[in-house]
Amino acid sequence: MIIVAIGAYWTHVSKSLFDNEQRLLMNDIVGAEASAIERRLSRSLSTTYILAQEIKRNNGIFENFESYAEEVISTIGGVSNLQLAPSGIIRQIYPLGGNEKAIGHNILNDDDRRREAQLAVAEKRLTLAGPFELLQGGVAVIGRNPVFLNQGGVEEFWGFASALIYLDDLLDVTELRNLERRGYSYQLSRLHPDSGSVNVFARSQQALSGNSLSVAVNVPNSQWTLTMSRNPPGSIISRTFWGYLASLLVACVLVYLLYSVLQHPLKLQREITEKTQILDDMLSYDNLTGLPNRHLLSKILANTIAESEHYYTQAAFLFFDLDDFKRINDSMGHDAGDHLLKQIAERLRDAVREEDVVARLGGDEFGMLLQNVESETQVATIADEVLAVMEEPVKIESREYTISTSIGIVMIPSDGSQVPTLFQNADMAMYAAKKEGKRTFCFYNEEMQASVLQQLRIEEELQGALDNHQFSLNYQPLVDLVDDCVCGYEALIRWYHPERGMIYPDSFIPVAEETGKIVDIGYWVIRETCEFIKLRKLRGEVSVRIAVNLSTKQFNDPNLVSFITQVLEDTGVEPRLLGIEITETILMKDVGDAIMKLDQLKGKGITVSIDDFGTGYSSLAQLKRLPVDTLKIDRSFVMDMDSDWSDRMIVEGVIAMAHKLLLRVVAEGIESEKHLALLKKYGCDVGQGYLFGKPVPADDICPSHTVQSRAQG
Ligand code: C2E
Ligand code: CA
Ligand code: CA
To answer: For residues 42-72, b (16+ Cβ closer than 10 Å) or e, as one string?
Structure first.
């Protein structure tokens, strides 16, 4: 607006300057034209003085008027004709041709002309009359000079000596017509002697414009007015117009530039916001499933915590991973794994309400935030649904897989007012659920925290346990079910803690496994067992096989075979007296590698047993390929055998199949005679369990430990 104002002002000033300049110029022109008219009239009308002089000289008689007039006109010029009107009556005109009608006309009797004529007589002055429409045609002015004769000292009016000038001729000597062509307008006017109104008697075709200038033209005994204006040439309009337009355009351009300059940071800001949003989305959503990721879920959780604390509402967070996802991923490939995750994600999304959030937290971990829940019962119902939904088979490459999960649940805000705490507690609850047996859910409670703390303590204390000789081995007998004799022992580790007393392996082996400490512990077990075998031999006791449990990490240790070889060599123990027990999970990772290792161990004469058979996923068909000697049926099948028909069927079937594969079968966890009877009936080879004897320290093993001695009490 400032620029438009400046531009308009500048245009206005320059227009004013231009107008002023034009006015000055016009002033000159109008002045010059007025003088030109005055000069011309004065020169032309001087003819009347010459005539008057001649009349006076001849005392009122003018004999050679024609020749005299002709000479005067040709000398002075500018006059159309000269007239003599004695007593006001036109008597003589030169040249007469065309003016005959005027002869005899009494001027002083003519209504139109009398006034000026009388004025001339009264003032005794040359008076310009007209312009008039002439009787003989045309428009003209007439200069009437009253002639007075001296009659005996008295001035007596004789008549008029007049000169007639056609208006056109008069204007022809000025530049007015020329100027008209150059865009000027003009107007010649006078005040009418009779009416007193303005009588315009000559004008340009183009009317005057507003910006006009008038000057007086002094004519004998009267006054005319010459008014002129310059028609604003197109260029002026356009100059002003262009001036305003240019200001407007310049202003627009500047406004646009200013706008762009000012907008630039805003634009940048917008771009940054957009990019940040995209990045945020990338950071907030999981690429594969499109679900919110841990990052976004954390934000939402934080909001939910705040809201629930503020409005006293409740929410629940479910945390779970897919059991055995790794196995599918490893065996079917990553594409199949991705496909599975996508299907699961879709199902989960469909399973919850609009306001709930399903998130992928990484790998095969999922989270589910249930907003505004009323009770744990409601959450439990939803958790049940989730379990059911997850267990519907997933089809991958025309094969169907059943996925199961264990869910940890935390209530918000009661189970944590910080996001990391919620995650941690949900994780604990999930592990508790897994422990309870897969395919279930578990609500977080404070004891879990305690058990985790205990785990942490164990982790710390495990470090020093080996050095401080806090471990020892217990031995549990294995009984041959054909001859009821002890045919071997299983070495089971115990931790004698200086403060907490004896700790069972289930409480620390998983921690040792996690921390990797298990490898050293395992080597200690192998060495200790071999030392014991050696001792028994020295004592002259019956040589029976003693088996040790090998954890996954230990089995995968590249030094395993060489270590065992070394220990056997060091202690001089026959390899056939050492057995190893491995679980099926060991075989899952890299079967080829496992087979190679087992071949090496078996090659030395060491017996290999598959422990806890039935809890893992290997089938008997898979076992066919493995170089193993013995199958240990898991305790869970044996325990419920007397009450559970299906467990009985499984045990019977497994024993039969194993025998077909030429494997010996050991049944774990025999606690009753009923178990024993059934197992014997099914043809089980070896038994282990509290019925025969609990695991006991080396010193407590009775040298002649047989079923016989048990029978005798
Ligand atoms: P496991 O290899 O299945 O060992 C058998 C477990 O069953 C032992 O528990 C034993 O005491 C128990 N058991 C035996 N008969 C009966 C019975 O009739 N009824 C009941 N209820 N239980 C019976 P333990 O000694 O607590 O060992 C638990 C697990 O810890 C073992 O299961 C094994 O997996 C692991 N473990 C023990 N010692 C070692 C070790 O030196 N190294 C490794 N890696 N793991 C070990
Ligand atoms: Ca075992
Ligand atoms: Ca076992």
So the answer is: eebbbbbebbbebbeeeeeebeebeebbeeb
CATH code, domain carrying 58 = 3.30.450.350
Cα 575 to ligand 1 centroid, rounded to whole Å: 23
Q: Which residue has the least CA distance to atom 42 on ligand 1?
A: 549
Ordered DSSP codes for 587-627: HHH-HHHHHHHHHHHHHHT-EEEEEEETSSS--HHHHTTS-
- Residue range 59-69, pLDDT digits in tens: 888 888 888 88
Ligand 3 center to residue 49 CA distance, Å? Answer: 161
Does a structural domain hold residue 707? no
Asked whether residue 451 is domain-assigned, the answer is: no
pLDDT digit string (tens) for 511-528?
898 888 999 999 999 999
Ligand nearest to the CA of 479: 1
- Both 675 and 575 in a single domain? yes
pLDDT of 454 higher than 60: yes
Ligand index nearest the alpha carbon of residue 495: 1
Are 8 and 61 contained in the same domain? no
Do 113 and 54 have their domain in common?
A: yes
Is any ligand 1 atom within 6 A of the Cβ of residue 611?
yes
Shared domain for 85 and 194, answered yes or no, is yes
In this structure, are 525 and 403 located in the same domain? no
Residue range of the domain that includes 433: 294-444
Nearest ligand 1 atom to alpha carbon 671:
18
Q: How many domains does the chain have?
A: 4
What residue's CA is closest to ligand 1, atom 27?
505
Q: How many C-alpha atoms does 84 have within 13 Å on its Cβ side?
A: 21
C-alpha to C-alpha distance for 689 and 654, rounded to whole angstroms: 19
SS3 assignment for 452-500: HHHHHHHHHHHHHHCCCCCEEEEEEEEEECCCCEEEEEEEEEEEEECCC
Q: Is the domain of 681 the same as that of 640?
A: yes
Could you say which ligand is closest to the alpha carbon of residue 669? 1
What share of the chain has pLDDT > 90, as a percent? Answer: 40
Q: Is 549 in the pocket of ligand 1 (CB under 6 A)?
A: yes
Tell me: do 304 and 175 sit in the same domain.
no
Last residue of a domain, one of 409, 444, 479: 444
Instruction: Kindly state the tokens that stand for 34.
Output: 């007025």
Residue 356 maps to which CATH number? 3.30.70.270
Residue 590 in any domain: the answer is yes
Residue-averaged pLDDT of the chain: 88
Distance in Å, CA 36 to ligand 3 centroid: 141
- Residue ranges with CB less than 5 Å from ion ligand 3: 611-612, 668
